[in-house]
Amino acid sequence: MEKTIDKVTKTDAEWRAQLSDLAFKVTRKHGTERAFTHDDFPKEPGVFTCVCCGAEVFDQAHKFDSGTGWPSFWKPADPDMVGESTDRSWLMTRTEVHCNRCAAHLGHVFPDGPQPTGLRYCINGVALEFKPKAG
């Protein structure tokens, strides 16, 4: 049985009022932050949520250092919350990943990550917020 997701829909004006200029450009207009420009996230246990709607999209336990300059994960925290679509911008074909709750652009996924999945979810740091696990 497929999981029901409560969708979040807002106008561009509503998103602009909620997000920083860069977060709006990245998440709502499919932009990309420059590599190595986002502060790294804490190393303690926690989850990464979508900056737009708060959906849990990645877990600290699945994060790894890819050397690319963007936060990288080998799998989503909840596969139902992270969707994929084909991105043909920049004269290439890539797999875009987005939040299934609010359609925010998060980044891209590539087949050159570590085991056990072999995937590298290359995510814009500005699209995420870190929430430490309650201890």
Report the CATH topology name: Metal Binding Protein, Guanine Nucleotide Exchange Factor, Chain A
Number of domains: 1
Query: Structural class given helices, strands, pairing?
Result: alpha+beta
Continuous helix count: 2
Strand count:
9
Q: pLDDT under 50 segments (min length 5)?
A: none
Note the beta-strand portion: 25-35%
Mean pLDDT: 92
Give the name of the CATH architecture: Beta Complex
C-alpha-based Rg, rounded: 14 Å
State the shape.
globular
- Share of helix, binned: 10-25%
Distance between the termini: 32 Å
Q: Order of SSEs, N→C? A: HHEEEEEEEEE
Main sheet makeup: 6 strands, antiparallel
Strand order of the largest sheet: 3-4-8-7-6-5
CATH superfamily label: Peptide methionine sulfoxide reductase
Top CATH class: Mainly Beta
Describe this structure in words.
By secondary structure, the chain is of the alpha+beta class. It has one domain: Peptide methionine sulfoxide reductase (Metal Binding Protein, Guanine Nucleotide Exchange Factor, Chain A). The chain has two helices and nine strands, in the order H-H-E-E-E-E-E-E-E-E-E. The protein has helices at about 10-20, 20-30; strands at about 45-50, 55-60, 65, 70-75, 80-85, 95-100, 105-110, 120-125, 130. The strands form two sheets. The chain has a six-stranded antiparallel beta sheet. Strands 2-1-9 form a three-stranded antiparallel beta sheet, with no helix packed on it. A hairpin with a 5-residue loop joins strand 1 (about 45-50) and strand 2. The longest helix has 9 residues, at about 20-30. The chain is globular and about 40 Å long. The relative contact order is 0.25. The model has no long low-confidence stretch (mean pLDDT about 90).
